[in-house]
Amino acid sequence: MAHPRPVELQINGEAFALRLEPRVTLLDALREHAGLTGTKKGCDQGQCGACTVHVDGERVLACLTLAVQVEGREVTTIEGLAAADGTLDRVQRAFIEEDAFQCGYCTPGQIMSAVACIREGHAGSDDEIREFMAGNLCRCGAYPNIVAAVRRAAEEAA
Amino acid sequence: MIDFDYARASSLEEAATRSRLPGAMLLAGGTTLIDLAKCDVVRPELVIDITRLPGLRDIAVEGDRIRIGALATMSRVAADPGLRAEAPAVTQSLLLAASAQLRAMATIGGNLLQRTRCSYFRDPAAYPACNKRAPGSGCSAIGGVARGHAVLGGSDACIAVYPGDLAVALTALGASVVTTDREIAIEAFFLAPGDTPERETILTPGEIITGVSIPRGPVARSSTYLKVRDRQSYEFASASAAVGIELDGSTIRDIRIALGGIATVPWRAQAVEEALRGRALDETTIRTASRLAVEGAVAHGGNAYKIELGARVVARAILTAGGLQ
Amino acid sequence: MSALERRAKQGDASDGASPLGRPLSRADGPDKVQGRATYALEQPVAGVLHCVLVQSTVGAGRVVSIDRNAAEASPGVRLVLDAGNSLRLRPVSDFYGNKPEGETYTPFAEVVEHNGELVAAVVADTLEEARAAARLVTITYEDAAVIASFADARAGEGRPVEAQDKGWGDVDAALAAAPVVISQTYETPREYNTPIEPHGLVAHWEADDRLTVYEPSQWVDGMAQHFADWFGLAFENVRIVSPFIGGGFGSKGQPLPHSAVAAIAAKMLGRPVKLAVTRPQTFTAYGGRPGTRQTLTLGADRDGRILALDHEGANETAATKTFVETLGVVTSMMYAVPNLRSRHRIVPVNTVTPGAFRAPGKNPSAFGLECAMDELAEALAMDPLELRRLNEPDHDFENGKPWSSRRLLQAYDVGAQAFGWARRNRTPRSMRDGRQLIGWGMAVGTHPVYSSPAEAMVRILADGSVEVLSSAIDMGTGTYTILAQTAADALGVPAERVTVRLGDSRLPRAPVAGGSQLANLMVGAVHKTALAARDELIALGLGDPASPLRDRANTLSVEGGRVMTPRGEAVGIAELLAATGRSVIEVKRDTLPEGERSDEERRKFFTTMAGMERGANLPVSRHSFCAHFIEVRVDEDFGTVRVSRVVSALDAGRLYNPKLADSQFKGGIVMGIGMALLEEGVVDPRNGRILNANLADYRIATNADVPAIETISVGEPDYAATPLGGKAVGELAIVGVAPAIANAVYHATGKRIRRLPITLESLV
What we know:
Structural class of chain B: alpha+beta
Strand order of the largest sheet of chain B: 4-5-8-6-7
Strand content of chain C: 15-25%
CATH architecture of the domain at 218-321 in chain B: 2-Layer Sandwich
CATH class of the largest domain in chain C: Alpha Beta
Shape of chain C: globular
Distance between the termini of chain B: 48 Å
Radius of gyration of chain C: 27 Å
CATH class of the domain at 218-321 in chain B: Alpha Beta
CATH superfamily of the largest domain in chain C: Aldehyde oxidase/xanthine dehydrogenase, molybdopterin binding domain
Largest interface: A-C, 59 and 62 residues
Order of helices and strands of chain B: EHEHEEEHHHHHHEEHEHEEEEHHH
Oligomer: heterotrimer
CATH topology of the domain at 218-321 in chain B: Enolase-like, domain 1
CATH superfamily of the domain at 218-321 in chain B: CO dehydrogenase flavoprotein, C-terminal domain
Strand content of chain B: 15-25%
Radius of gyration of chain B: 19 Å
Distance between the termini of chain C: 37 Å
Structural class of chain C: alpha+beta
């Protein structure tokens, strides 16, 4: 039926020419085809947030997005967050400072979500951060530190 | 997921035409379709991506209606200040749904068409019997664990709950669904399961939702959406209620109520509305009347609590909308 | 209070200058925040095929036939595997001593004993092809009757586990004479570890007899031995690589049937195979905590002194495999109980074999005991904290030994003070805020201290930097960081100059990261090794003819990466090595018992649980302790419970890194909140299927479910417990959270909920 077809993705400012079946999700395209394994697969069904990436600046779940759907759109993953010279984003720094993770597996999704959360203006209070970060599960239970990190980064951004 | 072909529609007409092909399905935000394709509940052969269609994204307050394009995302609509002022229940229903990521993906049209979370429906490998998936095959929920299932609007064929929040708010506010062919009052849009649980809406093949239209007015402006769930966030409703109210001093001039999380479709509570129109806004009155919301409810497999909970959620939503708390 | 401000209170024995005990940020942090930490399925192995599992859809019955044809004909498929065509392995005992029957072993079920059991697998060129083909495998079963859980009357009472019997005094007489007696039954449901990284592995045969496995592992040496035994290989010929683990909580301690599948497929196809267990499949690929129930009878005098405790516990186990959730472990050591009896039973049902899940035994044990204590306090009209103070034991009544340290009374004082417990009105339903009923509850937790032997290697490199090498792992527990701190501390170099390499079975050996033992035992082993390396460095400085410090002093010290005489003359480590022509100082040490260091004994210590039992020989009883004070708000209409405030005071001895230990404490509390209010495996009584085998329906706490949490360390260095003074950290804080919440719910509502989770329908 549907054979692999050329799919060109813009990821972190770089063009990736891939050959993908239409059913390949953005998450599997990143991890299995583009060599970008920073985006994590925790549930593959939209229930954990570990695969959060930005598409045209908005946070979305890569596991429920077809790769072919985002042709022509700008995809940003955790690998593309730090500056070109390696300087970490303020959210990345805040996560380290506040110890906002343990095992680290949900962390890329948390950070991508946090960057968007701040940009959306949803980091105004601890309760607002908790609600707008609720789509990223953390089984290590780093939530209090995640809230502190988002607050810290949001204050720096203000 | 089975193998499927993919096409990007460049016009509504093209999307409508292609969607009539066997095995064709429309793809918008993908949060239902891709999920269910992975569960093997839907097996599309052709996926028609409508996310690049021009228009269909606007949110406009014009005349006596608020119009929202079908392809506007939940997050964009939730952030719209005009809508928040005109119909706060709609804004709240969106913000209390899913997660920020899912809201950034999911569209208003797709949201209305989200499918039930019934565990048996979602697990075809272990539960071949599901009248919604395979008409005539039976219902695995009836006689099984059904804590999350519907107590209202069910039939012998299906007790799967309608999972959404937005449609509940729209039902309370008397909104309509606009399609390529017509405008449909939302209460007529959703179909209770009856003997044909596989038919969830009155959409016909090739008919595509283009938007929703909400009447403006005092009821919508004084509206609220209340959602009760096990988890604080990122979860479907155990029970929810949308209430719009128009007060004349402390008298209820008009009121509109709908429930979610406890019925097979967004559930209008007309009996409660009638009992309260013209009555004083008073907690005892409201609590008594709210019990009418769950009249005729039937419990199955561990969901009896939803009957009491439904009545209480309605009461509290009315109290909130009426400014009593 | 920030971790830094709290440092002085955290039982930190350092003076602030030495690296160990400082709240350094996580050494692996920069990699983790940039997506550079490489988890198992992300290891760059070229040419992998993808394997997808097929699990049973019935709860019991014989597999009559499997039709592989359609799957085999599906595009991209290389192999469809089931018991009929799988390579047969040698049977190997699991962690808990269950050994598969028969001469040979296949990971695929021929007789299904639980729903979701592994029956077949498909290997294809791409993940999408393997997934699609897996749907096409048609399995025919001869159905058998299913006993889905021990709620099914047909499950019966099960069988006693005599090894868990314990008791002293005359319980029956004491209870008969006790003026106040309460007796209640407490239940916990099946709970699942659900690390956010699901199970999975890449199996790669580098040669016919050499296997490399990239699999998240809490114990690379134990797993290597298991694979070696399966395939009849030498231990050295299996390499397990697991530098990062996306959470385990007990679930990643040993290879599971799917692990064998990937290795079998890779062997049969001559290609590396990647196998990702899907999230729904994880619920039956590993068991998690079994359902438990326990009946406690407590008798006390009118002043509140406990006279007797009678305890009967039971847990679900698999149809033919045994797992014991030791429900009597906290019961028997927490209070001064002069007469005690504890019995345990296991009840076989059609479930996957349950397994270890954070604080196995301790956690549900404390749920029963600590709820019962609250009920006893109620019956006595006493403050529950006072009841506990009154029954504080001056030694361990179970074994008669003194405590190595037990600072629970301090935890009571400090925790109660910070929480404001003194303002509590004992009467239920006495506090509210609008339509929210407010309740305050407390409970205690504990975890034993284990410390198996370990090896470690320390290398001082030519540039003066240091490497620490160990097969120990870091699943977020902080091993990378605290071992760097330990080596830095012993060697006198800055912690940033130390690189730690972990999670590879080629490195010096370590026991399981379980029982909250790893930090203490590895810190001990690395400290010993680093001191030996330091001695060697000093010997070089004092004695090597080419040393710039030769004949300058009788002793040397190492500080700040410089080797120094007492008068302050110093050379850098790199300088000293260069001058003496050394490229590296490499030292390997271990903490094995003298006389048990043969290769065979070594292997036993690192591939079995032998090391963990050694504590039984010590003259002291070693435990960490904590006291949780929790506020809940219960909506009076909806019955929804939200935790609004947590103060926990914890005695975990010396904290090697207070910042990271604090994260573990908070993480345990967060998991405890989920356990109390959300988590429950829902079993279909008709077929034993887990109905909520996903992360939307098996609810774990979200960020929005968790309030600010205040943790206070009251520990002090306990050198009787471990060489460097630490006690158990990782599993401590979850213990006691659920009963504290249940007790708070009672205080808020006047309703005693004795079955977890506490969901709204029980309070509507």
